[in-house]
Design goal:
The protein is mostly beta strands. Helices cover about 5% and strands about 45% of the residues.
Length: about 525
């Protein structure tokens, strides 16, 4: 049903014929991919950052967002054509034009290294979105706003802020990006109802050699996987956060705080009364082609403890200093190894809870709450007559036991934000196999196809709010994927991006059919 009006958006593809100069939106951070909203012109930047780590010889790090060290160096080159631009070397520009026609002056000022720079663009687009599980069709979905980025000495910042206005076919509009959607009604006119909401992501960073302190709203992605990271995953919903990122040679240490919401409706008064806070540490050692990571999380319910931000305070030990029913902790280990600048293999083990190592071996009751992920990424860059083709593939397997991410009482210290996991979005009692093949030509044309095999249990312990007993001596038997049906989906995607416009088409076939078409611009 949701596909019947697809032809009405085909006209958006006319924007496909825009110019072919390099479209690159500078940002002080390399961050997670924005899969559901806030689409910019760069296609899957984190995917191709992982591709560069696989095919290159640079040290490998797997904690994002992280500082982009080329941001200031390349800023004039990448951002001088922004709608509004200023730096202290060239002055102010509008759409790349100064108040002088002197080519020599232009070349001279652009060759300097500005100490202060700011670029502002208008961004937006029109979408067609729908799906079987969503139970809704969104057409038209229109968004618009500003994209601002810049720096001043050791401070850098980026802001992407949009207003969305959508028409829905469902009687009660459903949220495509899973955040809150407000329904408006024109009482004094036609009585027409429409959905509107605002979304933004931002970073404001302070840099000092080996240290970066970052305040922002975004999603943390920890670990070497792309689709199925278990601790913190890019597919989670964005949250307000504070991060401190430190580098000591090959050692990287991250301390992280996030302000979470318990209930899915972010405007609910219950979110004012019930507080949930997240603290996390990641310790990462990169040696040659190997990267070893340790991640730890503590979620606090109505029990704020700022001391947990201290990066040298082990959270899995500090957890024992607070009441058991008001906090929830987890510890994870991951390993990544790159082979021949062509392939990398990786794995992550996530330990939510255990009574003893024996309980993990027996694995017959809820004393053992754990998850495991393993994957492989391969890729190569091809060059032909001045063209660059980036070709790659990713295969991942994830197993998540029942009750993982859960807690003793529902809507308390679950490892979740707005009702969805902070880690793997499949949640507890699930199995996922992903295999994708992707390619990008000259940074402009992207094509990919993703296969997903998915199993989700239905027994108690399969949902975030399914509770576990407060005392582990209540050894309740768990059922992993008992009778779970396999769901298969095939998702081909094709996109193009120019200097000012972009086009994206993505369709999911077989189980959970859905479609996402978008025409966007950045000026």
């Amino acid at each position: 049903m949701f596909l019947k009006n697809v032809h009405r958006i085909i006209f958006a593809a006319t924007l496909f014929t825009a110019g072919v100069t390099v479209a690159w939106s500078a940002s002080p951070v390399l961050g997670p991919d924005h899969h559901r909203n806030l689409k910019l012109l760069e296609t899957a930047p984190l995917l191709f950052e992982y591709h560069r780590l696989t095919t290159g010889d640079m040290p490998q790090s797997f904690a994002y967002p992280r500082r982009d060290t080329t941001f200031q160096k390349n800023f004039v080159k990448t951002e001088r054509n922004a709608l509004l631009y200023y730096d202290n070397a060239c002055g102010a520009m509008i759409s790349g034009h100064l108040g002088t026609d002197s080519a020599a002056y232009l070349d001279s000022c652009r060759a300097r290294a500005p100490r202060i720079a700011l670029a502002t663009s208008v961004v937006g687009g029109i979408d067609y979105r729908g799906g079987e599980s969503l139970g809704d069709t969104i057409w038209p979905g229109i968004d618009g706003g500003i994209y601002m980025r810049g720096y001043a000495d050791s401070v850098d910042f980026v802001l992407d802020a949009r207003i969305y206005d959508e028409s829905h076919t469902a009687a009660t509009p459903k949220s495509f990006d899973r955040e809150f959607v407000e329904v408006q009604k024109e009482e004094n006119n036609s009585g027409v109802e429409y959905a509107s909401y605002a979304r933004y992501r931002t970073h404001f960073g302070f840099n000092y050699d080996w240290l970066r302190v970052d305040l922002g709203r975004d999603v943390m992605h920890w670990g070497p996987g792309y689709y199925n990271n278990l601790t913190l995953n890019q597919f989670a919903l964005p949250y307000n956060m504070l991060a401190m990122d430190m580098r000591f040679g090959p050692l990287r240490v991250i301390s992280f705080y996030a302000d979470l919401r318990v209930y899915n409706n972010s405007m609910s008064m219950k979110n004012k009364d019930d507080t949930r806070n997240l603290f996390g540490h990641r310790y990462e050692l990169a040696v040659g082609d190997a990267t070893i990571g340790i991640s730890e999380l503590t979620v606090l319910y109505d029990n704020m403890k700022p001391w947990l931000f201290v990066p040298t305070a082990p959270l899995f030990m500090e957890k024992g200093n607070y009441s058991e029913n008001s906090n929830n902790g987890a510890l994870a280990f991951d390993l990544n190894y790159r082979l021949f600048q062509f392939m990398r293999v990786y794995t992550e083990f996530f330990l939510d809870d255990m009574e003893s190592p024996v309980s993990l071996v027996k694995n017959d009751n809820i004393e053992a709450k754990w998850a495991w992920m393993a994957g492989l990424q391969a890729g190569h860059d091809f060059y032909f007559k001045g063209h660059k083709l980036e070709l790659g593939t990713i295969a991942e397997y994830a197993r998540i036991e029942p009750y993982v991410y859960g807690h003793f009482e529902k809507n308390t210290a679950q490892m979740a934000h707005l009702g969805y996991p902070l880690g793997n979005q499949a949640g507890p009692n699930s199995r996922t196999v992903d295999w994708s093949v992707f390619a990008r030509l000259d940074n402009h044309i992207f094509a990919g196809i993703r296969n997903t095999w998915f199993w989700k249990g239905t027994d108690y312990g399969s949902a975030i709010n399914d509770t576990t007993p407060l005392h582990n001596h209540m050894k309740i038997h768990k059922k992993y994927l008992d009778g779970a049906e396999m769901l298969y989906s095939l998702t081909p995607a094709l996109s193009y991006e120019g200097q000012f416009v972009s086009f994206l088409g993505e369709v999911t076939l077989f189980d959970d059919k859905k479609v996402y078409l978008r025409a966007g611009f950045k000026w």
